[in-house]
Specification:
The complex is a heterodimer of chains A (693) and B (58).
Chain A: E1 2-11, E2 14-21, E3 29-35, H1 41-53, H2 58-64, H3 67-72, E4 78-89, E5 92-103, E6 111-122, E7 127-130, H4 133-143, H5 146-152, E8 153-155, H6 156-165, H7 169-178, H8 181-204, H9 206-259, H10 262-303, H11 307-319, H12 325-337, H13 344-349, H14 351-369, H15 371-380, H16 385-422, H17 425-475, H18 478-526, E9 531-535, E10 542-546, H19 556-585, E11 594-598, H20 606-615, E12 622-627, H21 629-632, H22 635-640, E13 646-654, E14 664-667, E15 670-673, E16 675-677, E17 685-691
Parallel strand pairs in A: 3-12, 3-13, 8-11, 11-12, 13-16
Antiparallel strand pairs in A: 1-2, 1-4, 4-5, 5-6, 6-7, 9-10, 13-17, 14-15
Chain B: H1 10-24, H2 33-57
Classes of the chains: A alpha/beta (693), B mainly alpha (58).
């Protein structure tokens, strides 16, 4: 807030309309007001407070009206007291006017009638006028919080006392306002409340949520089990296929190997041998039968006296070499020469001959099979047709059967030979090994089938449980959704709250550091006695330390310097805070601040007065210093005057003045009048006059 | 300053700033405590809902 003009009309000590105009364009300006005690230094600050924030009560309003104006008014007449100011906040200009109307009564104080306020915000295109006291107050609080007023428009000794000796609640409130502590607290509290309410709501559905949790965990577990089971089942199926294939392969191998195995071959050969034996027996029987037939036939020849065909047959057989030479030739010779001797009873009686004949018969079997012999015998049989036919038929039949059986026997013997050729001793061990492996494969396959059946059973149970759990879950699905959401909201609120607390802490630390640095710097420019300005980290209030010890009993110079340094730092801090906060929260900009300082040199030693006068000017955009004449002389006048841009005198009009105070004061080479004693009876009042520099 | 702000996501920081601005920068009337909590709750719920939707979307 940079003040352009203050107009005071019939308010406090100011009679009629008095105006103070302050420079606004300079980087830093200093306005000096010289005023005796009771001339309105404090009244100016009170008038500004009234202008910005209004009155607390009607009584206060009644008392603020200028007594001289009331005195001059007629009974029943209305008197209007006005304070108006034009000021800038950043680039925006505001006009604020507040009036109190009172009515003169028989006896003072006058009767309160009304107060009015008007705030005009001068925009580029149009002005916005606001007359609602509450809204105006809200806007003014935004521009300059009421609690901060005492920091920027203050009486030196009073503020020093309130800051350094007995810090009062307003000071703390002002600091809290500066640091937006209340706003941070409300933000943190809102977030905490939100977190609590989320938590409460979440707790309401916790029971169902817990049930859901249990069921959902059970469902997840069952799904996992089901997947596991399915995988196991697939593995077992694949295993079964592989094992079955392996078993069948081994079984085939076994069958194939066992066919060529020793046992199998032995069995097979035995069968064949049996068959061969049967055949041999049969053939032998046939031979026996033929021998009998031949013997009978040959016997018939001889018995029937058919020597000639018998001889011829024998001769032919001999010729063809069918008769064994060792045995047959003498017999043939005998037959040929002594045919009769082997006939009839002789034949039967002669055992030797009989044996020979039998031998002959045997030997002639082969010969009997020949065609020639057959023809011969056929011819011979003409004589004994019936017997001959029988014999021939028996021979032919026997010969045919023998032929086929002989053939079969040869075949069987060939087969036996083939079987014996196949026979391999090692093959039997191999078959045993294959059989073992096959049996093992069979066991494994059976085990797999059993596992598969068990797994399938488990899967059915799991799937049934899963269906049941899913049905139960579907019934309460909406509740945990909201519970989860609420829990998440609670977490977000808690995190936000923690972040807000952290941010506030960071801000507080940053601000304390800022205050410390700026206050200490300005203080050390003035005070060089070894003491230092120190900002209490808890209260953020200033104190003086000497050799690290707090509560150092400093003189007025140090105290006033500390106050000024602290106030200047505070003003800059306010801008700093706003620049920091604006980065993130888009606060309204807080502009440069006008300072009105009253009685800052009162308790100050001359050495500090000089240093303060050297240090303070130029530190603030706009500074209005109210000085009593007794403080003006010496160091202050010498140090301050060269910085003064504009000077005013609060010219006191009164009937009686305190002789201790000067009536005139020197401003440079000029003598300026501060008070006039009026002859007529008047109420003490002030007129503001400009001092030409 | 505000180092902690960088720890969370951009959207979360937007929410934080919105809430802080609402509490610090009110004009002309400060909202009541009840209204503040209600507002904060609404924004947090919106934030969580949008987050959930995004997660579902992914």
């Amino acid at each position: 807030m940079v003040i352009q003009q203050i107009a005071l009309s019939n308010i406090y000590t100011f009679h009629k309309t008095q105006t103070l105009t302050l420079p606004t364009t300079k980087e830093s300006s200093l306005v000096l007001v010289l005023a005796r005690n009771s001339a309105g230094k404090t009244s100016l600050i009170r008038a500004l407070r009234f202008l910005f924030y209004g009155m607390d009560s009607e009584k206060e309003a009644e008392r603020c009206v200028n007594r001289e104006a009331v005195r001059q008014a007629k009974k029943g007449e209305f008197i209007t007291a006005t304070v108006a100011a034009g000021f800038y906040v950043g680039a925006r200009k505001y006009s604020l006017k507040r009036t109190v109307r009172v009515q003169k009564t028989d006896a003072p104080p006058p009767k309160f009638f009304e107060t009015k306020v008007e705030l005009v915000s001068h925009g580029k295109s149009r002005d916005v006028r606001q007359v609602d006291p509450d809204i105006v107050l809200g806007q003014m609080q935004e521009i300059l919080p009421k609690s901060l007023f005492d920091f920027f428009f203050f009486k030196g000794e009073e503020l020093a006392h309130r800051l350094l000796e007995i810090p009062d609640a307003n000071i703390s409130a002002g600091l809290a306002e500066v640091l937006c502590r209340g706003k941070w607290k409300s933000a943190i509290e809102s977030l905490a409340s939100a977190a609590r309410s989320f938590s409460r709501e979440a707790a309401d559905v916790k029971g169902q949520s817990d049930q859901y949790q249990v069921l959902s965990e059970r469902r997840d577990d069952l799904i996992k089990q089901e997947d596991k089971c399915k995988v196991r089942l697939r593995t077992l199926e694949e295993q079964e296929v592989a094992q079955r294939k392996q078993y069948e392969k081994l079984d085939d191998e076994y069958i194939s190997a066992s066919k060529s195995s020793g046992a199998h071959l032995r069995e097979k050969r035995a069968t064949k041998k049996q068959e061969a034996t049967t055949l041999n027996r049969f053939i032998d029987a046939q031979y026996a039968q033929r021998k009998e037939s031949l013997g009978r036939s040959a016997g018939i020849y001889f018995l029937e006296g058919a020597f000639e065909p018998a001889q011829k047959a024998l001769a032919l057989m001999n010729k063809k070499g069918l008769l064994p030479p060792e045995v047959s030739q003498p017999l043939v010779d005998r037959l040929l020469s002594e045919g009769k001797c082997i006939c009839g009873t002789d034949l039967v009686a002669d055992q030797k001959a009989r044996a020979r004949i039998e031998a002959f018969q045997k030997d002639s079997i082969e010969a009997a099979l020949s065609h020639d012999l057959y023809v011969l015998l056929s011819r011979a049989s003409n004589a004994f047709p019936r017997k001959r036919k029988e014999a021939i038929a028996a021979i032919v039949a026997g010969a045919g059967r023998i032929d086929s059986e002989q053939e079969r026997l040869a075949q069987v013997e060939a087969e036996i030979k083939a079987i014996e050729d196949q026979y391999d001793e090692k093959a039997e061990d191999q078959v045993k090994a294959i059989k073992l492996r096959r049996d093992q494969a069979r066991k494994e396959l059976e085990q797999t089938l059993s596992d598969k059946a068990n797994t399938a059973g488990q899967l059915r149970i799991i799937q049934s449980d899963l269906q049941q759990v899913t049905r139960e879950l579907n019934g309460i699905d909406h509740v945990p959704e909201s519970a989860r959401g609420l829990r998440e909201c609670e977490q977000v609120a808690t995190v936000l709250r923690a972040q807000a607390e952290q941010c506030e802490l960071e801000l507080q630390n940053s601000f304390r550091k800022f205050l410390q640095e700026h206050t200490a710097q300005l203080y050390s420019e003035v005070v060089v006695d070894g003491s230092e300005a120190y900002i209490d980290p808890e209260t953020l209030l200033p104190t003086i330390r000497w050799a690290g010890v707090r509560g150092y009993k400093a003189g007025g110079g140090q105290q006033q310097t500390l106050v000024l340094a602290y106030i200047a730092a505070l003003s800059q801090l306010r801008k700093h805070i706003n620049s920091e906060m604006r980065k993130h929260f888009y606060l309204n900009e807080v502009s440069e601040q006008c300072f009105v300082m009253d009685s800052i040199f009162g308790a100050m030693e001359p050495v500090y007065q000089a240093r303060v006068c050297a240090a303070i000017p130029g530190k603030m955009k706009q500074l209005l210093i109210l000085v009593a004449p007794q403080q003006w002389e010496g160091a202050v006048a010498a140090g301050l005057l060269r910085h003064v841009d504009k000077a005013y005198v609060f010219h006191l009009h009164t009937n009686k003045i305190d002789d201790d105070e000067a009536v005139t004061v020197s401003v440079g080479k000029k003598k300026v009048r501060l008070a006039t004693i009026e002859k007529e009876k008047i109420e003490t009042h002030t007129v503001i006059e400009t001092v030409e520099l | 300053m505000f180092e902690s702000l960088a720890k969370e996501t951009e959207k979360f920081q937007e929410l934080f700033k919105k809430i802080m601005k609402y509490h610090i920068d009110w004009v002309p009337e400060p909202p009541t405590a009840k209204a503040r909590v209600k507002q904060v709750r609404e924004w947090i719920e919106e934030f969580v809902a949008s987050k959930t939707e995004n997660t579902r979307g992914e």
